[in-house]
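Subgroup meeting minutes
Present: P.N., E.W., G.H.
Scribe: E.W.

1. P.N. recapped why we're keeping a running log of single-chain structure predictions: easier to compare across weeks, and new members can see raw inputs and outputs side by side.
2. G.H. added today's entry (401 aa).
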Amino acid sequence: MPSQPLEGVRVLDLTRHVAGPLCTKLLADYGADVIKIEQPRRGDPARWIAPFLHDLPHPERSGLFLHLNTNKRGITLDLKSDTGRSLFLRLLPSADIVVENFRPRVMPSLGLDYETLRTGKPALVMTSISNFGQTGPYRDWSASDLILYAMGHEMWGTGQPDSEPAGMANKLSLHIAGEMAYMATLGAFYGAAFQGVGQHVDISIMEVLASSIDRRAPSLLAYQYCGERAERVPSVHGIDAPPFVNYCADGFFEITVGLNWWADFVRAIGEEWIKDPIFRPPVREVAVRERFDAYWIPWCMARTKKEIVAIFQQAGIPCAPLNTTEDLVRDPQLKERGFFIDIEHPAAGRLTYPGAPFRLPQSPFAIRRPAPLLGQHNREILAEIGCDAKDLAVLSAAGVI
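Output recorded in log:
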């Protein structure tokens, strides 16, 4: 197999849940040797987050954990114990990167702060991912995905118009932060490789969201200069005609028309009713929208997503199906590009996973191993620092591994 871009790079992964594991998953997927270090007995809390294979809760059957931890090796280590910390420090000389997403007070309280870890290893890169960053008055605040989105992004414009503002898709904010942490970690690592000096990368999830261009910048500018707030519109049958999201015979589809594509839209429909100039956008009068819907809804309900998308794409109009998970797995575009891949896991069996987020033809993404079982590689990795079978038995009995 061609070499991968991060081959030869070793990462000690202390992350849990979503943002941190996504960061280290991307490092692992492109060749880094990522050693996931989990709490003995229980492991990463993501092991206990649904959905579970066949709806049977089990630490080796969480879909979230299985996805976010492919290509990693796994050990267990109690970092609250003197022995556990000692073993971690013995692993450190072989590492190029450490990634953690505890609260900011945790690593210093364990004696594993960056200044301590970089002693004797000036090129070490450590990435810390936290709710609000390593400094500031909110540093130790608790927060959830929803709270971070409300504080850092643009929640006013999300949700239905007759209800309160809502969050984005579950854990989406954490995935965005994980991707940002991946890019920042790579930048710091290559900077260290060229300059010989590492650094402590400080990722604040709130600041990642606050710096996002996704709706936030235009909404803030509109409010600042015009006093206008983002307007929430219904998901289906909204304020224009046709709305962005629409029902059809087998689900939903999305379409963008407006003035830009109105003439093409009229030709694609090809029926007399659509030629009425009263429907030419923008349509704001309720009576006109209701009259439009009286024709439009039956037209849509008589056709499938596939049929409707084919009609409008042939006319050059932006239109796509609103896919279910099953639709995505069967999607011909993704099939042709081999996006989904099957991975055999020793406990969960053979499952279908999302594949490469981007393509590097000369140094490709590859699945080298499934997500690790809890403590699966204890013997293999701890042997590198001189632990034999007898040592492992003593460490296990003491709850260190």
